[in-house]
Task: structure prediction
Amino acid sequence: MSIAATPRGYIERPRPSGLADVIDVILDKGLVIDAYVRVSLIGIEILTIDARIVVASVDTYLRFAQAVNRLDLTQSDQSEGLPELVQDMTSGGAKSKTKGALEGVKEKLTGGDDDGSDGKQKQKTRSRSRSSSSSRSSGSDGSRSRSRSKS
Amino acid sequence: MHDPGTPVYVYGVLAASDQEVVAVSGVEGADVTTVEHAGLAALISRVRADALAAAKELRAHWRVLEEASLHATVVPVRFGTVMASEQALREEFLERDVQRLRELLDKLNGRVQLIVKAEYDEERLLRDVVEASPAVAALRERVRALPGDAGYYDQIRLGELVAGEVARRREADTRLALDVLEPHAVAAREEQATSRNSAFNLAFLVDRDAEESFGIAVAGLSTTLGDRIDIRFLGPLPPYSFTDADLGAGIPAWA
Result:
């Protein structure tokens, strides 16, 4: 598998990606069978909206838990990383320039993504902070700020 | 032997000759198995409950398809598809759609979906818009000079102008991305923007053999777009966005 490196270095290796990154595709795309039974899935439209939120949250929690668990507090360079990460999450002010640093922190804290199914990636963590801080998004914009978690 | 009347959850379809054991568990934690018919194999698991917890089962759906498509070409079926029984699955899907499914599998064979999403740095984007458009800059100055909501309609007009400029940029950047990436792909699809600052959200169908050159093209695109746009490159995924039969509508399709 190739790593598409750039001067900025944040083009990630494509696989694996967290569920939150691809949730729109997973929810909305795929072959539709004309005769399929929906009986078992009453309320699926509402549930899928929930799913978008819940999956993003769960991924965030998982990532946090992992990050905290793997944190080696005796090593100063790593313990410097987390406050930065937390600050980024709570301020919601993530900009592209912080990505390189976050990437590095993520690598240290999680040892990379060897299991995409946990989906503990920085992207939705950062974006979730936006949806919760929400100073930038009005009520009507809620779904959009939420969907930042996937972008 | 299970009751043939048990409802089955359908994940996807692959060529019967292509199937491997899927080790991860499916929705409701059930084992994933296949139902074969006419050279096709549907990936399924049995469901008990009357309602599935979508948030949880979505992850199962995703995992099963990820696992199954590691080495095989799987046509993903829309999340939440449950058929009444194995018999219904055979008759109303595998048998009835056999032609369509074979054609799809042929077209998708050895190919994966890659996603390239791009997002503007909002501040940078807006600054660029103001700098590039005298009309926006002038109106902005006027609005700023007015107190409170005195410039209400000017504000709306200003926002409208900016939105127009943003849309133009979005279009141009989408075009640029497609120009750079399409030559490395078999097909491309424009997906819905997933955020306010989205520049584009593109799905590509790419030969497994061409993944590397595609990745290099993405890196090149990222360099071209520079700091003003963040690119995210995701995949490979099963070809979720390419499961409809009329693959080329609007966008150059099969090579």
User: Anything to note?
Assistant: DSSP finds seven helices and no strands in chain A.
